[in-house]
Amino acid sequence: VQLVESGGGLVQPGGSLRLSCLASGFTFRGYAMMWYRQAPGKEREWVATITSTGATTAYEDSVKGRFTISRDNHLNTGYLAMNSLKPEDTAVYFCNIKGSWGQGTQVTVSS
After folding, report:
1. Which of 1, 32, 81, 104 makes an SS bond possible with 100, Cβ 3.0 to 4.6 Å?
2. Contacts of residue 86, Cβ cutoff 8 Å, sequence gap at least 6
3. Over the stretch 33-44, which tens digit does the pLDDT of each residue have?
């Protein structure tokens, strides 16, 4: 299992980013996918989940209405679209599938 996140960066408050998680080494369409984040000095926390078909999603309360998790099973890629970003969204974002983690991508929200 290999997961590679990308799409992070520096953005101003209120801005948007779309993170990607490219998966390889297993049958991507067979598994749910989760996004987590870890802010400096804090524990890693769950952000969102999408089922294997994409039919069902779930979100942590603080990101509901601002973040959208999605996936393209043909491209073996999952996404996290983040809008109306806040400074408190600053963290390293990780995808998780089958208990495996990618290396993470840094998201910094600052003016």
Report:
1. 1
2. 13, 109
3. 999 999 999 999
